[in-house]
Design brief:
Layout: E1 6-12, H1 17-33, E2 38-44, H2 59-62, E3 72-73, H3 88-101, H4 106-115, H5 126-140, H6 145-156, E4 162-165, E5 172-173, E6 178-184, H7 185-195, E7 201-208, E8 217-229, E9 232-245, H8 250-266, H9 271-274, E10 275-280, H10 286-293, E11 298-301, H11 303-316, H12 321-334, H13 340-355, H14 363-373, E12 375-377, E13 380-382, H15 401-414, H16 424-440, H17 481-491, E14 498-508, E15 511-522, H18 527-531, H19 533-544, H20 551-558, H21 567-576, E16 577-583, E17 588-590, H22 593-598, H23 602-612, H24 638-644
Parallel strand pairs: 1-2, 7-10, 10-11
Antiparallel strand pairs: 1-3, 4-6, 5-6, 6-9, 7-8, 8-9, 12-13, 14-15, 15-16, 16-17
Helix pairs in contact: 3-5, 4-5, 7-16, 8-10, 11-12, 11-14
Length: about 650
């Protein structure tokens, strides 16, 4: 028995007369049986059949022709909702999005809907309209025959210094698909010479848009290396192979990975041994392509993209803006945690507070985080955007993809003015010439994979030193080897560092290694080693909790609250004190984010010299800031601070 409601029947006006007459006759017969139901008939000129939305009566009951489709129910017995549980406004937005957004830009589509008197709540967002238009244009994209023949001839006989890579899949140039791989020979020779001196490498790949008049994607795969500029350690992207494709999708990235493997095999290098880590933003099927081509490599997602997605989703789900900002900060902080157990406890407690109706009460937001942001390996929470000592190679965090963004800006800056309107063949040649210029200019001459001795500054930017402020609001000087040695000669070992000898195992660079001792030192003020021994012991307990049988309880207890993880206390201990581990091999590694970002730290080098009795030599002191930095604008209210406060034990 059909529900008592008003039915709106849409049928395609482009169909022949007979099916339309059959539909009208069928609806009339149905309306004679159901006297209480009202029907309206609307003609539609949709060229593509629309998926059914809402509940529909079986076609055999209505005796409908297959060419005629039922679209939607206008009013249901349930107030304000469809029979399938969808809100009317959501369905209307979906329909209007496809009707207006496929052929009009977002602003024009909204204007057209407003002029037709469509209610505001039925008008989709700009993002939804742009998305459906982009997909429609991608589906309908085609290239004329002149371009196909010209670019195909260019690929068969490319000008110097372009080298087009010929494989079974490429070059492919047709009216529907474009996939071309290319590289520059001098740049490739320099990469091969560098890799012959290395045991491993880190790869990064991404694509960029708006570089040619055909609107093709320029993608690239290359190495990430370390270099020093003005005493600052930074990552640099070194392109190896490039591609121009019609889409940034999984086949595009699969071709890049496969071509890199073939180039290394042709040079006698074992790519399976060299490639240990791959960093990407996760878009366009990059994760699937990379995991298939490099099954033994560790994959990392860019942390910046994760934070943007979380903030956007929080706004979409109407989560409190201050809570969304707090979750984004927890994501950024937890990414730096070295121990898997600590990362698990942080998110176990955070998700519990999100689901608690008496605390944060955001169950849907917690579901989103579990499904799209976090992964569960066994019983513990983990994530592919972690950048702590145990998850990444020191010197290569999940922000290394920013080096490729900087490289794209540099390469585009060397293009001629108006490069967005150039032909794709000109783009390929200009890219190859740019790579040749960079290699000949010695941009990669001092490339290195690890830095053993700390430089003048370990921060990303010398003008923005990332350090804690003391109690008086004055930023401390960065410690150097000579300052630490002078303090040790004056105060002794007991007032310089805290040492605990133990036989345990921790994770370093995605591997489990044996340690012989744990050392705690202040990061910026050596006075803390003498005056704040309680905090030093608390920091040591925090580092040792992963070695205990009941590590979760030990971790919470080390932060002063056995029931709940304390964000503020953990942040204070992590940034003010650094923990070093002496490995069984004699290597000293530092848990602090500065060491992880730069593969070296003053404290680690200092303690290594203490162990080996090396002759210390002073290095140039890092940037000084005697005055406090301008305080950040506080975007949190007092009410929100009370809400976010960790419950007392």
């Amino acid at each position: 028995m059909p529900p008592k409601q008003e039915q709106v029947w849409y049928f395609d006006s482009l169909l022949p007369v007979q099916p339309r007459e059959g539909l009208l006759d069928c609806c009339k017969r149905w309306s004679e049986k159901e006297k209480e139901a009202k029907l309206r008939f609307v003609s539609s000129q949709l060229k593509k059949k629309t998926t059914q939305i809402g509940s529909a009566l079986p076609p055999d009951l209505l005796d409908l022709d297959e060419e005629v489709f039922y679209l939607r129910v206008e009013r249901s017995v349930r107030e304000g909702r469809k029979h399938d549980g969808k809100v009317i406004a959501e369905v209307e937005q979906h329909l209007n999005k496809h009707q207006f957004g496929r052929h009009l830009p977002a602003k024009q589509a909204k204007k057209a809907m407003t002029e037709l008197g469509i209610p505001k709540e039925h008008i989709p967002s700009d993002r939804a309209l742009d998305g459906v238009r982009h997909r429609h244009l991608e589906e309908g994209k085609s290239y004329d025959g002149k371009f196909v023949s010209t670019f195909a001839a260019f690929c068969q006989n490319p000008p110097s210094p372009v080298v087009v890579l010929h494989t079974e899949e490429t070059p492919l140039v047709s009216e529907e698909t474009v996939r071309v791989l290319f590289y520059e020979q001098e740049n490739l020779d320099a990469v091969i010479a560098y890799l012959r001196t290395q045991d491993r490498c880190v790869l990064v790949m991404d694509g960029t848009f708006k570089t040619n008049v055909q609107d093709l994607v320029l993608a690239s795969l290359g190495l990430v290396i370390l270099h020093q500029v003005g005493g600052v350690v930074r990552n640099r992207f070194w392109p190896v192979v490039c591609a121009v494709c019609d889409k940034e999708d999984e086949p595009c990235y699969a071709l890049l990975c496969g071509s890199f493997q073939k180039l290394l095999e042709a040079s006698g290098l074992d790519w399976q041994k060299l490639v240990t880590n791959v960093v990407m933003d996760g878009a366009g099927g990059a994760i699937n392509a990379t995991s298939a081509c490099f099954p033994d490599a560790t994959l990392h997602r860019d942390l910046e993209h994760i934070k943007k997605d979380v903030k956007r989703t929080g706004s979409k789900k109407k989560v409190d803006s201050e809570l969304t900002l707090e979750i984004a900060e927890i994501i950024q902080f937890s990414a730096k945690i070295a121990h898997p157990l600590q990362f698990h406890v942080i998110w176990e407690d955070t998700l519990r507070r999100l689901r608690d109706p008496e605390d944060w009460n955001q169950e849907k937001f917690a579901d989103y985080l579990e499904k799209w942001v976090l992964q569960k390996k066994g019983l513990w929470w983990s994530a592919d955007w972690q950048s702590g000592l145990g998850q990444v190679c020191p010197g290569y965090g999940t922000y290394v993809s920013n080096s490729q963004e900087r490289a794209w800006r540099s390469i585009k800056g060397l293009f001629k003015k108006g490069f967005r309107h150039q032909d794709v063949s000109q783009l390929v040649r200009e890219t190859a010439v740019t790579l040749q210029t960079l290699v000949r200019g010695g941009q990669y001459a001092k490339a290195c994979f690890q830095i053993e001795e700390p430089p003048e500054s370990l921060a990303y930017s010398a003008k923005r030193l990332k350090s804690e402020q003391d109690d008086e609001g004055i930023q401390s000087h960065r410690l150097t080897l000579d300052l630490m040695q002078q303090w040790r000669d004056k105060e002794g070992d007991a007032n310089t560092f805290l040492k605990y000898e133990t036989a345990g195992r921790i994770r370093v660079d995605c591997r489990t290694v044996d340690i012989t001792s744990v050392i705690v030192m202040p990061k910026y003020k050596l006075e803390y080693a003498k005056n704040k021994k309680t905090d030093m012991v608390q920091r040591l307990d925090l580092a040792l909790c992963s070695l205990y049988e009941d590590g979760e309880a030990a971790f919470r207890t080390a932060l002063g609250n056995p029931r709940q993880w304390s964000f503020s206390m953990h942040k204070k201990l992590l940034y003010k004190y650094t923990v070093m581990y002496v490995l069984s091999t004699g290597r000293v590694v530092d848990e602090h984010p500065h060491f992880v970002h730069s593969s070296c730290s003053e404290q680690a080098f200092f303690y290594k010299s203490v162990l080996g009795g090396l002759n210390l030599h002073p290095i140039a002191r890092g940037p000084k800031t005697l005055k406090a930095r301008r305080p950040r604008r506080d975007r949190r209210t007092d009410e929100f601070r009370k809400k976010m406060r960790t419950p007392s034990p």
